[in-house]
Structure formats: C-alpha cells, structure tokens
Amino acid sequence: MRSNQNIYCMQHGVNRRKFIRSSALTGLGMGFFHSLPAINIKSDQKTPVGYSTKHVAPGKRIGIIGLDTSHSTAFTEALNAATPDAAYGGYKIVAAYPYGSKTIKSSFERIPAYTEQVKKLGVEIVNSLAELLGKADVIMLETNDGRPHLQQALEVMKAGKALFIDKPVAGTLADVMAVYEAASHYKTPVFSASSLRYATNVQQTAGGKAAGKILGADTYSPSPLESTHPDFFWYGIHGIEILLTVMGTGCTQVSRVHTADTDVVTGVWKDGRLGTFRGNRNGPNEYGGTAFGEKAVVHLGPYSGYEPLLKEIIQFFDTGISPVSPGETLEIYAFMEAADESKRKNGVAVSLDEVMKKAVAKRTLIH
After folding, report:
1. Are the CB atoms for 229 and 336 separated by under 8 Å?
2. Residue 249 above 70 pLDDT?
3. Which residues in 182-205 are b (16+ Cβ under 10 Å) and which e?
4. Which domains does the chain have, with CATH numbers?
C-alpha cells in the first residue's frame, strides 16, 4: 500500500528525496526541545452566473478551515477571481469549514459575513473537517484562534494533505512543537508564515542584496493583546517575523519592557548582534522597520498586501517544500514565548533554550 507521502509526491511531482529532506528539517526545535464538533450550517448559496469551482483540475482544490479572518476572504477573492494571476496556477478555493473560534468574540462574530462573501465566490460551506477533507486536495488553516490548530492540523496531516497554517501556528509554544513533530511523523508538508515576511524590501534585505550582512535591525507593528493567547502570538508576530526574517536564526536571549500602550523587546543573537521589536497598541497601524547592514541602512516595509504570501503558498502546494524551515518558525515562537516570560519576570533577560525546555515537557506526544 502506498504511503500518504508517496501519493502526495506522485500527485504533485515532488522529488521524494527533497521531500524527505524538507520534512526532516527540525533545526532549532526538535532535538532540544478533535476537530471541532460538526455544526449544521444551512447552505442556500447561489453561485454567480457563469462562475463555478466544480471543474477545478485534480490536485488544485483548496479547502479553508476558519472564516473568522479577512485572510480567508482575501485569498478567496484572489484565487477565485474571473481572471486570476497566472502565478496561482489554477488553484481554487472550493470548500470551507467556518470554525474557527467559538469563544473569541472578535473572531466568531465575523463568521456569518465572511461566510456569505466566500459563498458568492463559489465556495461550498461544509459542516465538518471530515467533509472538507473529502472535497479538497490541500488545506489552508486560517482561523485566528490558535488553540484548536493542533487538533485540526492533526486531522489534515493524517489525511496526507499539504497544509498552510496562518498565524499563529498554535496557541502555545508546546503545541507549535507538536505540530511540527506531527508533520514529520505523518510525512506531510506544513508551511506557516506572516504576510509581513514578504513586505517590501524584507526578502532582499534578508538575502543580503539590499544591505549586505545585517548587523542589526529594529522593527515595529501593531500588537493588540488577546487574553487567551501568549501576547505576541495574536498579532505582534507580524513585526517579530520581519525582525527574525532579516536577522536570521541564532537569537539566544530576549528581554522585554511592557507598558499599557507599548512593548519593546530586545533580542541578543549568538554573534553579538542586537535586534529589537516595538509593539504598538496606540497610534497608526503601521508595519515596518530598519535594517542596519554593512553596506547600507534599509527601510523595511510598508506592508505589501497578501499577494506575495499567497504566491508562496501556491508554490508550496505545488512542490510540497516549505520556503521556511521548521527550525526558523520554531525560533520565532520561542522568541515570543521568551518575551512573555521576561514580562512575567519584570524585564529580565530570558534564554530561548529555557522556554524551549519547558515547552518540550508540556507538548502533546503524537506517537
């Protein structure tokens, strides 16, 4: 009997050796370190005249979990447009399971309106994850609430379907680790990133083209808090992902100054470089930063919209290879967890190793 991995590789033309190498990239996190109940939804949707997602090519059918975020509607509008960007390769969103959070008001109150929006673009609304998995080839896990992500992701991975997980990967660092352990165990491709990773100048700066070797960086983004999540998992991750994208991996410790309106987090890298993140809860909702390189000082940003990330997601679905390694993603979440621990300890420096050791002890064992 063929494994899910082999089936995926054959369907998508993925080199099996590359797939295994990608799945094994555990970097920072691994050596050291169900689904929601079905809800009946009345579906009286009417597909727009002349529009249909019924004849999407095999392998190109996308299913969405979570209609409580504007990402879901933005991705659907781009992919299901009458004349979509050729870079999207014929992928269409064909079905969606709306939930998602049932307890975070700012999330669940969006579901009815967003459900109606995607229905108008030919998306079928389903009543369970099992039903969604039967209609889609690949999955986008979009819900804002990271707490159900691990259990929902497990269902997708058990089905052998490539999975993009929007921020946050999960509701705790321990669950983020468990997601990537499960991806390795089930040999299923998983990719997660903030759209700010692909903001103006960020990729060129990270690659050394814009400023040469990066000596340090300061970034900023809005950082509203949600009591059910570690502080930066909810939104500050956007600015933090910019920071770690341009600085690269290797942060060893984090310290944080917190006030009602602002957070300032300073990371120290193993080579002595410093990087800071400023999280704002007052004033304009702006994203960006400054990178200090050997050759130039570069402004990072502004926000470039969802399209650059969406193109990376489509390429990931085509190849089965994530453009961001598990180790790099785990370091982002360890950075945020260390910042929370520093806050609890009144601003003292906290090592990333310390928070990872604690998370290892708490994580769900997949096998």
Report:
1. no
2. yes
3. bbbebbbbbbbbbbbbbbbbbbeb
4. 4-193 (3.40.50.720), 196-310+324-362 (3.30.360.10)
**In this predicted model, what pLDDT tens digit does every residue of 281-306 receive, in sequence order?**
999 999 999 999 999 999 999 999 99
Distance from C-alpha of 154 to C-alpha of 149, rounded to nearest angstrom: 8
Written as one letter, the residue type at 208 is G
How far apart are alpha carbons 138 and 45 in whole angstroms?
Answer: 23
Residue 245: strand pairing partners: none
Task: Determine the Cα–Cα distance for residues 157 and 71; give it in Å rounded to an integer.
Answer: 22
| Residue 47, CA distances (Å) to 11, 13, 52, 98, 354 in order | 29, 32, 7, 18, 53
> Are 296 and 287 within 8 A, CB to CB?
no
pLDDT, mean of residues 318-339: 97
Q: How far apart are CA 236 and CA 256, in angstroms?
A: 13
DSSP 80-100: TSSS--GGGTT-EEEEEE---
- For residue range 161-190, list pLDDT tens digits in order: 999 999 999 999 999 999 999 999 999 999
Q: Is the pLDDT of residue 102 over 50?
A: yes
CA distance 232 to 36: 25
Q: Note the residue count of the chain.
A: 367
Residues 6+ apart with CB under 8 A from 54: none
Let me know: does 230 contact 174? Beta carbons within 8 Å. no
CA distances for 333 relative to 133, 193, 222, 329, 363, angstroms: 28, 11, 17, 7, 14
- Convert the pLDDT of each residue in 190-218 to its tens digit: 999 999 999 999 999 999 999 999 999 99
Residues near 346 by Cβ (< 8 Å), separated by ≥ 6?
Answer: none
Phi and psi based region of residue 262 (left: phi greater than 0; alpha: psi -120 to 50; beta: remaining): beta
CA dihedral 180, 186, 189, 193 (to 10 degrees): -20
